[in-house]
């Protein structure tokens, strides 16, 4: 019994010692491994964040302008058309502008639910500006360019394309915005193929002064709204002219004689980039109109007016030499990018108004 007791006592003395030795040797090692894991995790997170930021910068780049005549020639070649036809430039340009929304770096991001597209609001507003002009131009195709008169039948392809472009711009799924817009582009491609076919008399593009003036009236309204929103970046007190010029005019609810308008500071860059997108699209559409409506513009001696509009729109696309959109006062120390953009938009808008007057003259 004494021998057994002595063995037990020895084991008791030995085990705590071993446990103590094990804890003394494994403790620092475990801490070191934990520290290495934390460091590796931090590096991995940093790499992912850096990749998202770099990718976001790349995706935020605005697409460059494209050559209208080149894309027209390419589209006609794809349609197996022998020569350029009236309406081909405008249709090909509309197709290319819509494709740019979907195929630029990052694709269409207005409906993205994951970074970096989720937080890239500037390029998303640029997309919306382009999309609005694409919608208006496609409506002009459906209601004016493809019809000889108000009682004529709408073109079957344009009748399907225009509603597709008016689908929600931020739908992520079921269906996604991109899928609807691609279907609309497909209908436009079918229309281009049909008007390029000499044997097809049903599909037409009528390059008439009244058709062009009708679209320009809508453009003038869009640019006027953008100009007002851009100018309101610094806040303005404006006389209420809602019912001016007509003594019998009325409105639903009374309004003050003087109104103060100001774009919220959180929306200043949004309005700026929406205007950039709208002017980018209009620049191409007007270049295409120069081709398709050449005889009309020559007859009205209006080519110089179109050139002036294009020059103002080109100026609105100059590079922004600062990483953020500044909102300085009109004559302050810092620049105001919104007021600069408003200047180009307003001048283009005034030139469009003059052009419509020329087109309305006999």
Summarize the structure.
The protein contains 11 helices and 2 strands, in the order H-H-H-H-H-H-H-E-E-H-H-H-H. By secondary structure, the protein is an all-alpha fold. Residues 14-25 have low confidence and may be disordered.
Q: Which structural class should the secondary elements be placed in?
A: mainly alpha
Report mean pLDDT, rounded to a whole number: 88
% residues in beta strands: under 5%
Task: Report the count of strand segments.
Answer: 2
Distance between the termini: 130 Å
Count of separate DSSP helical elements: 11
Secondary-structure element pattern, one letter each: HHHHHHHEEHHHH
The stretches of 5 or more residues where confidence is low (pLDDT under 50) are: 14-25
- Major sheet characteristics: 2 strands, antiparallel
Strand order of the biggest β-sheet: 1-2
Principal-axis shape equals globular
Number of domains: 2
Radius of gyration: 31 Å
Helical fraction equals: 55-70%
